[in-house]
Design goal:
Structural class of chain A: mainly alpha
CATH superfamily of the largest domain in chain B: P-loop containing nucleotide triphosphate hydrolases
Strand content of chain B: 25-35%
Largest sheet of chain B: 6 strands, mixed
CATH architecture of the largest domain in chain A: Orthogonal Bundle
Distance between the termini of chain B: 40 Å
Largest sheet of chain A: none
Order of helices and strands of chain B: EEEHEEEHHHEHEHEEHH
Radius of gyration of chain A: 22 Å
Number of strands of chain B: 10
Largest interface: A-B, 21 and 31 residues
Structural class of chain B: alpha/beta
CATH topology of the largest domain in chain B: Rossmann fold
Oligomer: heterodimer
Distance between the termini of chain A: 23 Å
CATH class of the largest domain in chain B: Alpha Beta
Helix content of chain A: over 70%
Shape of chain A: globular
Order of helices and strands of chain A: HHHHHHHHHHH
Strand content of chain A: under 5%
Number of domains of chain A: 2
Shape of chain B: globular
């Protein structure tokens, strides 16, 4: 009981310590606007922004835009996860696949995918598809590389143990190797998720008719500075929630593995 | 003597390394092992004894020569040869029960039948109270018991043991040696046991193959003519046991001098 208590207390104090810099940043923001270092028309107070954020949470139009962003984020990230894990595992299990993939990855991974966005819009149109394609292109590589590295580093004796027990090579790859590589895969997926958040927002800012990024740009063009900050708050809240969800999922998936942090 | 269960004929293994060129890990090894024999491969680290075991398991391909098991050429891993590794190699995401059930499930048993089979084996290795534990929650000795149970669960005819007790403390090691002999005494599987401990090899085996280093080859074979069941405390006072240990120790000392 007391051990559990200690864990709880540590968790709470760690969370508090983590929240401190954020509180500090908000405090600085508040002080700057309250003491009129910057005019309120350019830098609104965080209180005003949060109040507006809460109001907009009940606004169907805002929610529709947030929904569009979420949809692109999840579909794009989901496709990136499936492709990244699939290709990464296949490359780890098959030398021909690895030989085919490696040069492609070396050429494509460093390309700033956002540069492809105008082309993607021309190809897929203004709607969801072009944003999703960009999210996939950007989130794919960290997931793919982490999967490949993790799968290659799996102890061969784990695989031998399964093979001797009667599992086929292919079965081993998709059960034993994939599972044993999970800690690495999840690290890649976490990075992919952060990148996906950034990229979907960027794409909407550059060229879009809806979404949180588009709301920001539209507000900025109209000098609605309060409305301009709201999407930023929204995306960072979203990131926080996704991170928490990801942590919960990781804990469940990685039960039995040596602890990560 | 029964027919040869394992025939290792002219097996060698050469690794092509980029830094050191060709490295001959195993020389020209030929060994025949009869069914039901407990055989140890004894040698200094780096002599290729584990490599020989991996080749027999079908995990590593021999550069030359071939291995026959029951007259069949070894081309890959199979459930007739069950490995037990020094590092346990348990599936960390599976519970003790899940690990032991793995083999029976792969062999096509139903979930109920596999569970029943796994529970039988957990009783055999005295871990029936730990079936819901994860490997990381167990001690080294317990992990190795799970690994042994996992391998025995799919009923291999041959056990390939790669320094299985090498990572354990002396006390646990002795206990597991006794338990292994106990289990082996029930159905007399063929065992190939790799170790660098002379006492362990003599205590457990019917035959001990002493290997030399680079390129690894068989230096000498000792037939261990000691009665079974063997009791460690009695053997320690047994002149024949002492003679085997001393003879093998001397042989290994000679090797060290030759290298030095």
């Amino acid at each position: 009981m007391s051990a559990l208590h200690a864990v709880w207390r540590r968790n709470i104090s760690e969370t508090l310590a983590g929240a401190l810099p954020i509180v500090l940043a908000l405090g600085i923001w508040y002080v700057i606007s309250a003491w009129n270092f910057a005019p309120a028309s350019l830098l609104p107070s965080p209180v005003t922004v949060f109040r507006r954020f809460l109001v907009l949470l009940g606004d169907p139009q805002f929610l529709q835009n947030a929904g569009a962003t979420l949809y692109r984020l999840f579909v794009g990230f989901g496709i990136a996860v499936m492709l990244g894990i699939g290709i990464g595992i296949l490359a780890a299990g098959n030398r021909t696949v690895a030989a085919l993939m490696q040069p492609v990855i070396r050429v494509l991974a460093p390309v700033p995918k956002i540069a492809l966005y105008p082309a993607l819009v021309l190809m897929f149109g203004f709607d969801h598809s072009s944003k999703i394609a960009l999210v996939v292109a950007d989130a794919l590589f960290p997931i793919l590389l982490a999967t490949y590295q993790g799968a290659v580093a799996v102890d061969p004796k784990l695989v031998w143990s399964a093979r001797a027990a009667g599992a086929s090579q292919t079965r081993c790859l998709f059960t034993i190797v994939l599972t044993a590589a999970l800690p690495s895969i999840l690290t890649g997926a976490r990075i992919g998720l952060i990148i996906a958040c950034i990229v979907v927002f960027l794409a909407e800012m550059i060229l879009s008719t809806d979404g949180l990024g588009q709301l920001l740009v539209r507000a900025a063009r109209n000098f609605q500075t309060v409305d301009m900050f709201v999407p930023i708050i929204a995306i960072s809240m979203l990131g926080l929630l996704l991170n928490a969800a990801f942590n919960m999922l990781s804990k469940r998936l990685l039960v039995g593995f040596p602890s990560q942090n | 003597m029964a027919t040869d269960m394992i025939k290792i004929a002219g097996v060698s293994k050469v690794y092509d390394t980029t830094q050191r060129g060709r490295h001959v890990a195993l020389g020209d090894i030929s060994i025949d092992i009869a069914e039901g024999q407990f055989v140890s491969i004894l040698g200094p680290s780096g002599c290729g004894k584990s490599t020989l075991l991996y080749i027999l398991g079908g995990f590593v391909e021999a550069t030359t020569g071939q291995v026959l098991v029951n007259g069949q050429k070894v081309t890959g891993p199979g459930p007739d040869r069950g490995p037990v590794f020094q590092e346990f190699a348990l599936f960390p995401w599976k519970t003790v029960l899940g690990n032991v059930m793995y083999g029976p499930l792969q062999q096509g048993l139903s979930k109920e039948a596999a569970t029943a089979r796994a529970r039988e084996l957990l009783v055999l290795v005295h871990l029936q109270n730990y079936e819901g534990f994860y490997p990381k929650e167990l001690s080294g000795g317990m992990k190795q018991r799970v690994a042994l149970a996992r391998t025995l669960a799919y009923g291999p005819k041959i056990l390939l043991m790669d320094e299985p007790f090498g990572a354990l403390d002396a006390y646990t090691r002795t206990r597991l040696q006794n338990e292994l002999l106990d289990i082996w005494g029930r159905d007399r599987k063929t065992v190939m046991f790799v170790t660098h401990s002379v006492e362990e090899a003599v205590f457990l085996s019917d035959r001990v193959f002493v290997m030399t280093k680079s390129p690894g080859h068989i230096r000498k074979v000792f037939d261990i003519d000691l009665p079974r069941p063997r009791v460690r405390a009695e053997l320690l006072l047994d002149r024949r046991y002492q003679d085997y240990v001393i003879a093998i120790e001397r042989l290994m000392d000679e090797q060290i001098e030759e290298i030095a």
